[in-house]
Amino acid sequence: VTTRVAVRIAELGDAPVIEALLDYIDELHRAALPRILQQTDEPRPAEFLGRFLTQAGCVALVALVDVDPEPVGVLLACVREVAADPIVIRTRVAEIDTIVVTPLRRRQGIALALVGAAMEWARANGATRVELGVYEFNQAARAFWQSGGFETLSRRLEKPIP
Ligand SMILES: CC(C)(COP(=O)(O)OP(=O)(O)OC[C@H]1O[C@@H](n2cnc3c(N)ncnc32)[C@H](O)[C@@H]1OP(=O)(O)O)[C@@H](O)C(=O)NCCC(=O)NCCS
What we know:
Helices cover 31% and strands 23% of the residues. The chain is an alpha+beta fold. Bound molecules: coenzyme A. Coenzyme A (COA) binds next to α1, β4, α3 and α4.
């Protein structure tokens, strides 16, 4: 089945749907990393999403499929200047903070469409590459990024202290 996917920049009115999508990734991370993440009744700070919806240099992209009036996927990203260090080649990097597709709409090319739009947005905002972090446990996400041509730039290691 091929799904027609449209991607647009999110508006303030999309916030509730985006928050609901972000809950999926929070739950996924919490279930896999109970040592690090906990259940909470406190809502996500509004500034988190607000940054992507309103700040220059940041973007929230939402994906829509023809049959569904509400966004079925979201990607949050910002561009930044690399550290001012003589050894670092001066450039702008786009950092993808989050990408989520609603569970029933996965494997239909929606995330791929979001990343394509994010690459275009990043280029238009002066970035020369895209970076992101992915948890090692997240096999689906790692397979997704690998299939999209993303390669491991560094590895973050940890060891709990007994
Ligand atoms: C990761 C995620 C965003 C992928 O979204 P998606 O819309 O299903 O991805 P796409 O349909 O665009 O996938 C494109 C390709 O990526 C690969 N891929 C995607 N999901 C995969 C999976 N679960 N297992 C293996 N490969 C996968 C495939 O090669 C796929 O192409 P194919 O379906 O023709 O085989 C989605 O699984 C998700 O929302 N996960 C929960 C949130 C999350 O983990 N976000 C990433 C944090 S870094």
